[in-house]
Structures are given as structure tokens and as C-alpha cells.
Predict the 3D structure of the following.
Amino acid sequence: MMIRLAQTQSVGQRLQLRGWRDLELGALHAARGRGHHTERGGNYGEPLDPIVVDALHKIHAGIGQPLRVPQLASQVGVSQRSLNRWFQQQLGCTVVEVIRHVRLTCARQWLSSRPDLPVTQVAAMVGYSSPNRMENHFQEALGVSPRAYRRQMAPPLTLESSC
């Protein structure tokens, strides 16, 4: 069974075009303060608006918590509509798509690196309100369930690793 990357991959690709490689926290810190506001945005050669950078940082830092767009917009000091518009212009995707991408990226890392963690715990660790919601997003984005993903990504057992 092959894992397909649908919506999540396209969001990830768009973010990578902007220099946000898998939204690593180090990259977010390094890019902080480099941007300036542009009326039109969307030019991948231009730095990101500091508000977008701040929102990306808050998304990544608060990934284990329930995260809602109105609260995020309030935290960065803009309206929900403005934040969504800036994300669309500068990243080519919505705030919700970015949040989902970060959650699924973190969940994939946990599932492949920590086979001892139950899927329900992974879902809670990455901010999903229920394991079913994470499972639905996983299925939509990757074409497999979290459990199937874990089985596919698990390292093969060797004599050394089983002792």
C-alpha cells in the first residue's frame, strides 16, 4: 500500500516555496522580523509579513493546544478576515490548512518515531479534540489511517533491535 500525499503535500510545498521547510521552529525563529508588509503579497521572492511570521510561530508553538483562527488572529492583532487574506496572498493557503498541515506533520513524526504511544495520545499531543478527527484528516491527506501509516513507517525488526 502506497501513501499518497494530497492536500497536505500541496500546502507543504507552498510553504517550502516560501522558505518554511516543514515549519520547523528553528526556521521560524530565524525568519522572525525579516518580513515587511506588502499590499499585494503573493510574490515568493518577497519576505513574509511579520504578522504572518508571528502567526506561523504561534501555530507551531501551540500545536498541542486547541487552536482556533479567531483566537490566533486576536493574538497577532488583526481580524480573522485579514489573517486569512494575508495567508492566502502570501502562502497560497488558508490558516486552517496550515494548522492542519503542522498537526499532521507532527503526528506523522510521533507515529513513526514512537510506536509505543497510542494513536489517541498522539492525537491529543498535536491538538486534535478527538482521535476520530485526526483519523479523518489523516485519511483525507495521506490515504491511510494513522495505524496503517505507523505500520508502513515502522523500522523493520532486526536481531539487534529485538534484544
